[in-house]
Amino acid sequence: MTDAIGLNTLEQALRALSSRVSSLREARSAYPADPRSTLDAALAELDTARELLESALRELRKAPKRSGERESGSQRELKLLRQVFRTFPVPVVVLDSSGVVRRISAETSRMLGSPAGYLIGRSFPLLVDVSRRAAFRSHLTAVQQGGQSTTFQTRLAHQGRAHTVQLAITRLTMPGEPQEMIAIVVLPLEAQVAGDPPGPVDRSDASLVMAAARRQELLARMTRLLLDEESLRQPVTVTRAARLLAAETADWVIADVVRDGVPRRAVVLGPSDKPVTELVRLVEGMTPLTAPAVAHVLTGGSGVVHEMLEDDSLIGEVPGGPPLLRVMGAASLLVVPIQGEAGALGALTLVRLRDREPFSLADLGLMEEIGAHLGLALRARRSFQTRSQAADALRASVVPRSLPDIPGVEAAAIYHAGSSQVGAEFYDVFPVRDGWGFALGGAAGKGEEAASVTAMVRNGLRVLSVWESDPVEAMRRLNHALVAQNSGMFVMAVAGFVRARRIVLAGAGHHPAALLQADGGVRFTAGGGVPLGIAPEAEILNEEITLTSGQTLVFYSDGLVASQNDQGEAYGETRLADVLARCAGQAPATVVKAVEEDRHAFSGGRVWDEIVILALRVV
To answer: Which residues form a coiled coil (predicted)?
Structure first.
């Protein structure tokens, strides 16, 4: 069909072509095992479609130009040809000389899954399979320069759809266009649809609401993850966030974090269903600033989205090789900052492959919000770490790392922190003149101030024991110092100096010690006295005990006897005595462990206030 034809004949030929194309589709569905004959016929119909387009263009060129009429014959013919183009049963695309889509038929829109308004103005080569994109551009140039039509087989991918197609490429002149154009007739040979039904993407109100709901759900899940205590305590914040994004919204996730002013690669996650281990290792070793998109986001502070990639080098190149995005098979890219107070703390890079719907502006908004949340989480974690380190330092100042070896005495202790990060209880064992000293107690309060007062008491006893041979006198001096500080804090404490089997105790409002006899009997010391820091001349209880073989002296904090079960009952000293009675003749380490295990079972493992247990036995 090389001669020009009338419009009526063209309409008839178009209807006949539509009928034959429908028959071929039915044949392909009915006889999938014999695609060869259907393919040959489809290729012949492709040539027919191309000739019809050429004839229609010739008719359009022949139409005389008229002016002054409300609607000239050429205008009516132009309207008809536009209608023919829109209803053409074979996918047709018209490109300008640079390969940008200028016209697209309804059938092409249906096949690719996007409305014409979305695809017009896009570069058509971006839809072509990455491995054949360079060859397609060469064919396109050859048609432009030589005028000879050609065919080209490749894959087109968009919106989660992948089509193996035969492209018929021809040069044409469009009326009113200063440059020659390129017409491409698309014959699908095989289609793979990932989840979505064929046809344009559903952009109804209901679909948009559902998409927004999914984004909101992802944001909520990310927030819960970042607020989890483990994310604050352990250096896993960025890794856990990247894993969630990789599972929910991207094929590749790359996280870069600024440390000591230098961007460093923190996490690289690739598709779990593809053999990309070597590529992941390669990306992990790359410097973030060699990726132009990442460098732009880190310095500019705002995110970028590339719905369709025109530049494969946006996140760098394989050393000595092709662009990284090309190796990945990427089709869409999104990079957002991890926001800090004075600039970016890092960047999140998300990549989607060609078999997924591309990132949109709505995705960019969501990821920028996630980047802001992640930045807040990192700052909170750093603050938490700083406070944690301070708490550890304070705790080290009130709790010894280990107990010293005391000649003639066995000692064991257990310490459990309570609900407060910084504890106010202490225990200690230290040398004194001609023997050893020990102390146990705590300030009435919590937090850093209580811990600092506790540390002063503990260290003050150590210093005073160098000069004082009597723990009662050492406690009196400490009391004067606390009253002079006027901190409003008071400390309940007990201290003792051990010389051979003789122990001199000084009590300042602390619980009485439990004395476990060799036969299993348990009695409690006097206890009592006035807490330190209340009054200058407060009473300090003085008591002396001589331990015999097999006896164990057990000291404990209020957190032990005040522990409660589900019914609100306190552990108490009676239950403590029962447990100790079962430990007669046991080593101090066994005794403190038995008490702690019984308390744990009683309270269901809950710890509100600090628990200290110290046991001494003369051997």
So the answer is: 7-63
